[in-house]
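Q: What does the assembly look like in three dimensions?
Context provided by user:
Components: two
Sequences:
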Amino acid sequence: MGFDLAFALSSVPTILGAVGTTFCVALVSCIGAAAIGFFFEMVRRAGGVAGLTTGFVIDFIRSTPVLAWLYFLYFVLPFYGIRLGSMTVGVMGLSLYYSGYLAEVFKAGIDAIPKGQSEAARALSLSRRDSVIHVIAPQMLRNIAAPLGNYFVSILKATPYLAVLAVPEMLGRAFDIASETYRYTEPLVVAGLIFLALALVISHGVKRLERRLLAVGAR
Amino acid sequence: MSLFDIWLGILQGLGTTAAVTAYGLVFAVPFALVFGVAQYLTRGAARLLVTGVIEFWRSSAVIILLFVFYYALPVVGITLSAMTVSAMVLGLNAGGYASQAVRAGLQALPSGQKEAGAALGLSRPAILLLIELPQALVAMSPTFVNTLIQLVKATALVSLVTLTDMTFRAKEIAQVEYNPVAIYTALLLAFFVVCYPIALAGRWLEARVAAPGSRSRGI
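A: Here is the predicted structure of the complete assembly.
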């Protein structure tokens, strides 16, 4: 057997053809996770019973594997008559799983803003709404940009989990080739290298962004 | 099958989950120590090489790494059990993350520590072993706990390479019993009861070692 380089190269276009799907799944999941995570964090900050419950939900999500969540949604939703495509279920699973982590990112981003900022906004008699939009949110966005970018890379690297739900992303394509040709090594190595390259390139971009934001912050 | 029977059935996989985690640590801990210290001490080309190895294990998608090594190692004549391959891949991935904590912990120490050691006439290895590493490892211990939790959760993947862990047991039970709500809720709960106490221990540890004001929430 051995490693057939020509065969590996021939599998590149098919696998690379799914890079768009992988990227879109990661992007939509990241937006979904940010939306749910922000909502979780807002409810948690408000405190009370709802806040404590949400805090527990966040901890629960973070104590359980993403694969278990994917199976849970994939098999439980149809039980209640909710039939969704595997891609939708996959995006929901990744969004839900990573929302627990992004809630923590929002928490840290908001906690890092000095109290004086909202006090100053109040002293200038800005309304609560205006102080959030013009004073708090811009500073929070700067605090969360880099961790959000890092979680985007994590989500991207988690998209191959969706192959277990038969979503045609890159790992799924690699397995399609493998099951047709009975050669697993080459397509899997190709998929692995493409993911590694994507992760390294985006991580590098996030690092540069972080450095620029830190430079702005230090002014 | 009652809910309790399902729960017990899933817990039959706890042994495998624990074994993969423990066996994974056998790979993760030495890798993190050796490569974290190496990245801290080396310069130039040597450092590039060390960073390359770390990034390979850390930045690859772990599910693809697992499949690549599971299918590719026999092709190049290396036959390992599914257990060994899983422990190696999951362990070195976690070790890659932990190595960054080791390096960051060492870099964060004030240079006066090293200089004081040198002034006392200690050799470089003695300074590293007696002065730098103990402080760095204690300071980073909450991060290591988080990595341990990630490792436990990542063991759910071994169900995809035929090991009968908790996730695999859940899928087996799902084949004889159509009760996805109970089965997959029980699976999530099974992981929660394993990981949440570790997370709480991590938070306790963090409160002990962290300087006030620099806390995160663990998991």
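Follow-up: Chain B has a mean pLDDT of 92.
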